[in-house]
Amino acid sequence: MVADDLLVARRDGVHVLTLNRPDRLNALTVSLHAALMEALEAAETDPECRAILLHGAGRGFCAGQDLTEVGPGADLGETLDRRFNPLIRKLHAIAKPVVCAVHGVAAGAGANLALACDIVLAAQSARFLQAFIRLGLLPDAGGTWALPRLAGPARARAMAMLGEPVEAPQAEQWGLIWRAVPDEQLMREAERLAAHLATGPTHAMGLIKRALDAAETNSLDQQLDLERDLQREAGSTPDFAEGVRAFLEKRPARFTGRAS
Ligand code: T3D
């Protein structure tokens, strides 16, 4: 593994992960995949880590799969099975909020990597590009799942079939991302947001992720039952007790993020 492909900084409860192959627009290699997965697993198990911030070094977020590592004859299904799919599953399963800060271009699986994060901020000049069709491919890394859910089926089809860039303000308007912010404010905003999330009731945030993901396939009845079960769990945390106490005492809550 080339360790410098991914920079990891830990501060104030936040693990900041920086994709660091700027000369290749942070395209994902086998080595970068391994480093990213390792860093996410470390963040997941570190009790001090209460939020993750993902972004890219250089002039763009990520150009997707490194195309020098795949080519005609390669079994693309295997690359997905071994690398992209576990990565996307991990981002959904990790019981901590993941913020993504996108600047420049997020292309191919790089765009869908961003869309798998919980809260996506983008610089106003950033663009999201389902570049796959230019290669004769369909969106992967969860793209065909996320795009219709976030932006709606009509936009998903056009994005996938035309492969045209979607500018960040448009992405915000469509609901693909949380917010587009002035370029010079992106990292400050993303760090502020991650730091804020890191002081929140972390266990409840993990439960929110579970509930919202399950809602994609559950009936209303199933979802109501799930909310009951998860709310019972949230209601047994010290953070719920603290939240109520803080409300009654008219002061900000001091959450620990702990489950018990
Ligand atoms: O199983 C599987 O593996 C299938 C999985 C597929 C997942 C995918 O992600 S498929 C989609 C892969 N990504 C792309 O098709 C995007 C390719 N890149 C581009 O179309 C353009 O680079 C961008 C539109 C993203 C940005 O354009 P621009 O003009 O701002 O930058 P550039 O000059 O094209 O790129 C800068 C350098 O990065 C350049 O290298 P050079 O010429 O300076 O030596 C370029 O070759 C390199 N680069 C950019 N993207 C990739 C890349 N190198 C390898 N792989 C890339 N994906």
Provide the succession of SSEs. Answer: EEHEHEEHEEHHEHEHHHH
DSSP strand tally: 9
Low-confidence stretches: none
Rg, Cα atoms, Å = 19 Å
**Bound chemical compounds:** ligand T3D
Helix content: 40-55%
Which topology of the largest domain does CATH recognise?
A: 2-enoyl-CoA Hydratase, Chain A, domain 1
| Residue share in β-strands | 15-25%
Give your account of this protein's structure.
It is built from ten helices and nine strands. It has helices at residues 30-45, 76-93, 109-115, 143-151, 153-162, 168-174, 186-197, 202-215, 220-235, 238-248; strands at 6-11, 14-19, 51-56, 98-102, 105-107, 119-123, 127-129, 166-167, 179-181. Strands 1-2-3-4-6-9 form a six-stranded mixed β-sheet, sandwiched between helices. Strand 1 (6-11) and strand 2 form a beta hairpin. It starts with 5 loop residues before the first strand and ends in a 12-residue tail after the last helix. The mean pLDDT is 97. The structure holds ligand T3D. Ligand T3D binds at residues 24-25, 27, 63-68, 70, 76, 79-80, 105, 107-109, 129, 131-132, 135, 137, 140. Ligand T3D is lined by residues 24-25, 27, 63-68, 70, 76, 79-80, 105, 107-109, 129, 131-132, 135, 137, 140.
